[in-house]
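The records we work with from here on pair a chain with its fold. These numbers are not coordinates but entries in a learned vocabulary of local backbone shapes. To see the layout at work, look at the sequence and tokens printed below:
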Amino acid sequence: MCGIVGYLGRKNTKKILLNGLKELEYRGYDSAGIAVLSHGEFSSFKAVGKLVNLEAKTKGFVTNKFAIGIGHTRWATHGKPTELNAHPHAGHNSYVVHNGIIENYAQLKKELLHEGVVFLSQTDSEVIVHQFEKNLQYSTNAFKAFKKTISEIKGAYAILLITKSEDKKIFFAKNGSPMLVGINEENEKYFASSDTPLIGQCSEVNYFEDGDYGYITPNELIIYDKNANKREPHFTKLSTNKLSAQKDGYRFFMEKEIYEQSSVIIDTLLGRLSEDRIIFDELDKNFFDGINEIKLCACGTSYHSALTASYMFERYSKIKTSVEVASEFRYRSPIMSKNMLFVVISQSGETADTLETLKMAKKAGLKTLAICNVDNSSMVRIADTFILTRAGIEKGVASTKAFATQVTVFWMLSLQVAQIKKSLSSKEIQKQIKYLRAIPASVHVEDALHEKIKRLSKRYLNGHGFFFIGRDIFFPLALEGALKLKEISYLHAEGYPSGEMKHGPIALADPELFTIALLPQHLLYEKAKSNVEELSARDSTICAISPLEFDKADDFIQTKEHGHYMLEFFEMMVVVQLLSLEISIRLGNDVDMPRNLAKSVTVE
């Protein structure tokens, strides 16, 4: 979940590394650092906190001749955020940057300490550079030492290493953590954890597979696979559009991304709807043959979209569906039958726990499907097939448009399965397609709505917590609303099924408990209203979100009347996102970079 960059060429190496790290800062911002090797001499800089601190430290440093360089922006996993724990980590004559976790670092470190190696950090990553330098003493060249080092470490990693003994090479290795390399017409070479830092620098990129390792020089890109077989790089065109990565006048990327939901859902729907059918060209016409059960597996926001999907698959597709938290699923002994479709959901396609469950399902011989936003990501490459959500770059750590597009895909997919299994009539599917086409309008943010929420937010800055409550498919939305608020405001919030209030949680009800009540007109309205009235009777402060006025509410956010509960779902989704955003802004928080969190969770 950290970010790495690398560069080999003759331009301003420092500037290229810092600009690349700026694009990756959403992946980690506890500390950052760079190391540049030019004409046999190293220059290294580290700083705690955001990237501006590193920029200030490197102000007087300039490179304008051939150099190789590596950089890193960190989210702490082993060791606190300090300069000593920041990457790159140094040996006597080498530097390394690393994303992931080295599982056997304790044993390696013990052996190195016994041999007299001095460690400066508390990190697992530092063992890599010391193990390399140990192996270099007994190897005829640096690549052999690097290859031996990779064979000795276990875990997830994306590694870049540079060493004085061969000052025109960058060594790399990738296993379970994302990394790619790009080239341009000047034969310069760039490494990064994702596409974004390479846009504008490269025309083509190669995405490394798990187990790949090798090195680059001014004239070579050498890749070996996990079986030590040399392979040719596979270059694909890199997008040149960087506009979506800019704020476009919004205060925060998260705000921009909430407003973008209308346009990205249009992209999600594009080419997948006819007048009477759902069309996923990505899926073979026989893909669902023999499938009588669906298992959905995800983490965080994607888990909430999976829960949402489970209601639709069972309601429309009439197929048994279960949902698993990936971090739990991978450590028990789950029963996985051959007639089960295993679906993983992830914005990045690199979420470590979810990725491992996908590998488990593949090993068990299950048919697998990835719902993902990033083409060429690990999940996309491993799954039997995939559906891209087309949300575009999402830079806010708290996910918004990724969730919206995932739910949109699941609504369509549940109807496609219904088509195949004939669990819905053709007339009903046509009706649902009409509602699907209305999603972009339902998530359009009107100025009056945003202004009302902005004013309302000042009343919800104190108190001892929030309940987000909803029934049926609005329960996962309540969970997602609570998660958004927790992530960016640091206020305690919980999502509950409305009917669960009287089974314990209502004991907390008082004026300082804020209840955000989702009350859709077209799904269990009277039942949900009754549950909210119980909280109101215990003097909880009620904020009702509904198209129908509710006289027991202290605050009321009126949504439009829609013909289908899913359109109510999408509009209420926008409301809870905006409410979380405005509360966080009033509290003075950095909405895009909430504390302790990183965008892409690529370690366990």
In short: The mean pLDDT is 92.
